[in-house]
Amino acid sequence: KALMKKPWEGHKKGAEKLNQVLKWTRDADIKEVTFYAFSIQNFNRPKKEFDFLMKIFNNMLSELLNERFEELKEKKVRIKFVGRLRMFPETLRNLMNELEEKTNGFDKYRVNICLGYGGQEELIDAINKILGEKLEKINIEKFPKYLYLNSQPDIIIRTGGERRLSNFLTWQSVYSELFFLDVMWPDFSEEDFQKVIREYESRERRFGR
Question: How far apart are the two ends of the chain, measured CA to CA in Å?
Fold first, then answer.
């Protein structure tokens, strides 16, 4: 908006930024990274914008399955999609399934992409799974296996000047170190990334102790 451009132009730049950030995380030897690409609430976006986003996702996944698959194989990058994936068009779901299957054996880096995701919805879906199994009791140790994603991130970066998590990793973020940046996602730079890493390294993590 600040640049007087259409929303989908920002989405296109944002998709390009994802590839850059993946390189920075690999260079820093960060083994797992999770991107919040599309929330449950984003399904309410105007149809033209929604269709453009679906086109971006289709193009990105097709590129990863074809032109860039050897790169994923060489670097041993496993890709996982997280969220209510059933809500997406069949063509896109098929691409997700194929990419997950083809990278399932890769074990050096993990990339999680949240699509149709909401932290509250994830908890509700987990509870429904537990009810379906007719369990009489559940504890903190067992509960995560019912989530879409049981990894707990060390760092969560929120760009765009907002000071909230917006329904992201509600369970998993309990002891994450939070960084809120005023820079917009397409303008997030390697310098910004390195500043976050340096500050994270200077923080003392006590995990409630």
Answer: 44
Considering only CA atoms, give the Rg of the chain: 18
Kindly state the DSSP code that residue 79 receives in the 8-state scheme.
E
> What gap in Å lies between CA 36 and CA 13, rounded to an integer?
15
41-100 residue pLDDT tens: 999 999 998 999 999 999 999 999 999 999 999 999 999 999 999 999 999 999 999 999
DSSP state of 1: -
Length of the chain: 209
Please check whether residue 187 is in contact with residue 16, taking contact to mean a CB–CB distance below 8 angstroms: no
Separate counts of helices (H) and strands (E) for the chain: 6, 5
Question: Which DSSP state fits 203?
Answer: S
Half-sphere exposure of residue 187: CA atoms within 13 angstroms, side-chain side: 9
d(CA 77, CA 111): 7
Q: Do residues 151 and 112 touch, judged by C-beta distance below 8 A?
A: yes
User: Is residue 75 a contact partner of residue 108, using CB atoms and an 8 Å limit?
Assistant: yes
Half-sphere exposure of 125 (CA within 13 A, CB side): 19
CB 107 within 8 A of CB 76: yes
